[in-house]
User: What shape does this take?
Amino acid sequence: MNPTSTASDSGAPLGEVAVLPGNCTLRTADDLKAHLLPLAAAEGVVRVDASRVEQVDSAGFQLLVALGRALAHHGGALSIHSPSAAFRSAARVLGLEFLLEPVRAE
Amino acid sequence: MARIMAVDDSATMRQMVGLTLQAAGHEVLTASDGDMALEVLRDSEPVDLVITDVNMPRMDGITLVRELRRLPQYRGVPLLVLTTEASSEKKHAGREAGATGWLVKPFNPEKLLSTIEKVLS
Amino acid sequence: MNVDLTQFQETFFQECGEALDLMEATLLQLDIGAPDSEMVNTLFRGAHSIKGGAGMFGFAQMTSFTHGLETLLDGLRAGQLSVSGDLVELLLKSVDALREMISAVKGGALVDAALVDPLSAAIAAAAAAPKAEIPTAKPPIATRVPDDVPASPGRDAQGHSTTQWNIAFTPGPALLTRGNDPLRLLQELGGLGPVEVRADCEAVPAFAELDPEICCIRWNVVVHTEAPRDSIELIFDWAQGDCELVIDGPHRIAATSAPPRPEDSQHPAAAGAPPIPSENAAPVIRTEPAPKPSPAQVAGAADHDGARATARDGRPAAADAGSIRVSIEKIDELMNAVGEIVITQSMLTQQISGVQGIAAERLRDGLTLLERNVRELQESVMRVRMLPISVVFSRFPRLVRDLSQRLGKQIELKVSGEHTELDKIVLERIGDPLVHLVRNSIDHGIEAPEIREMSGKPAQGTLTLNAFHKGGSIRISVGDDGKGLDRDRILNKARERGLLAEGVALSDPEIYDLIFAPGLSTAERATDVSGRGVGMDVVRRNIVELGGTVDIDSQAGQGTQINITLPLTLAIVDGQLIGVGGDTYIVPLVTIVESLQIRPGAVSQLAGRGEVFEFRGDFVPLIRLRDLFGSKRDESRPDQGLVMVVEAEGRKVALFVDELLGQQQVVIKSLDTNYRRIEGISGATILGEGAVALILDVPGLIRLAADVNSRRAA
Assistant: This one.
């Protein structure tokens, strides 16, 4: 119903912080992948802000899992910040709560 | 609250499905055949769920499901088929077309709601 | 929630009556020996829909009878049976029997089995005739227990399970696209009892290679539940064939062995709680005792009030005991009063918004309740004004028959959605435009039979009238399968009349839109049916005055469809509040496609089209509301800010706004009566704090943009 698009790709210095849009589902998965793609090659810890996520499904989580694995591949890590309640409960249902664990400083 | 499209050539069913879902707080669009549903759905913001009868004039429910799945905005969107028989034939046809699942008629409003809430959760 | 089925019974009886009439008429026309397959389909659908409804209401006699009938008709449909005079006779008798059953059921009775059983037997015998084999005996549907929600979780008193299932779930490639999200399936598993979910992400490919539509995560789940295997299988029923599933169990484990920590377990969905409680989940109305229908819902309930008059036992209530006649003025007064209450209520809400403390909190709760009550009141009043569109549609069969005879054309009229309800005022004022459109279709759209045959079409043309609800509006379409609009002729005419500058390129919808321009009639010769004086411009004006829009879809040789969108009511609108130059304006929610932040470079200057905004690969004219309404031009960079893409009559325009404020339902005050008509503004409303806000007329703005641009081009 809400026509206001909450997705915004403004203001984020690439490679360090990304903001997840409100909708992280299959419907928008291609866009989300494109949005996250530049981060996959980043080094170090990539911070992703999940506070605006209103809807998320397996497809959305799978992209984050893949992103985390890509970062780990060259010694970095994915750090998910201030997850929304919707995000957190979906992570729990999917058995992916490990994504929310704090990243240890190197 | 979700936006739901209910497609059925029977006014009774449309009304029953419509009122039940509306009473549960959903926004309901209705169409009396697949053709009309497709026309409405093709150009508007995607709905959250489509629930369609199978046997309808002009365009049947299976074809509707197949056509909707061709639209990028309808991949992954739950599409439910209403079948009168618990016949595996219709279920199979529905699945082949890309339906998410089915609901066997006759059903009561509670059954409809519980199924829909389940799919939308 | 408990839904009372009896409220739908009246509709069902009506529908049965119509279906039976249609079946009878079809049977009388059926060509013995060479039945038309569409006619047989019609018969089948009639029986099928009666069966469906009867099953829903638990009318067992009707259900089993129509089941037999349906089997027989299905045999006909499949070509396994041939149509004989005897068969038609049998089917006619069945139609009569069903009529009797319906009137019996209305009185809460059954038709004597001695009358029905022989007929049922004859139907069964006829159905079995060709292959001399008895059709697989199916139990009558009413006695079949519908497959139900998974069995309730069988947990012991402590909430601990003593039985454990190990489930290995591997999604297949089509699982996600068909809409069976593992998230939902796992959630449902959690409804059976405490679960431990382990995700195995080994198979997830490298990020760049990942196909987001294919789920490569696998799951191993331990469920502690007393529920049988069936309940688990049922959860994965829809996903069957789209996943690999291994259900291992049940394993009895000692009750003392530690069940999963409660915080690990999911909230049991089956217990009636929303599966995932979360602060920002949409407020689900599931638990609310009083359903509150919105205007759209109110109107979606065709014949709903009539149905209500049916007593609980299915016996029709005394016909006139429950109704009185009220003048429309009295209802309007009520509507006005309700409108004032809405304004007062939002004013109160506004005034208390900054106040802290317990008393303020209580007051806010009270106001929330009041808001709901007022909304219910408003909807009840609006419902009183609603009438089905059949009131207007009913005049068309005669009109179509008369006109087509006069013009020597063969035309079949197909009407659907005639139970769709809309505001009485809207209904009264849409009649004439519709008549004009129908006349146009008959006169200019549908070709003479011989011409149709030459172009390979059936001699008989089809005219369709259709109405349905879409969101908070009603859509009415008038369609024909005639020759379609001639785009070149429209273009030539428009240039001839100076409506269009030379060299301006238009899209097809824009060209078709020209037929609504004053002074453009494309018919080669005016007939006495249409195309004289009152033209499409008048049609559009009528519709626009009702706050509606109209657009055209046409294909050469295939036909034309005219779509009218009208508000359900003239009294209120769901609006998005926007800020422009310090003032608040309201955009009707139905017109909004999307609101978004402009990215640098998204706005460009197109020769002949002014400023445009790139939206979903299209260039949409951009209107700067500040310029339009004479506010100060924004100092900020021109390509940064908020853009709201709105659509009407199939055309989009992008509005440059300063900020998005809240959304609310507003009561429309006409500016015509209170002030004067302003281009681009359809009315005004009073906001909570007492301020006046103008309501944007989106179709008007779109035309304004077109005018500006064509002037630029000229």
Observations:
- The two ends of chain A are 44 Å apart (CA to CA).
- The helical segments of chain A are 29-40, 58-73, 85-93.
- The first helix of chain A runs from residue 29 to 40.
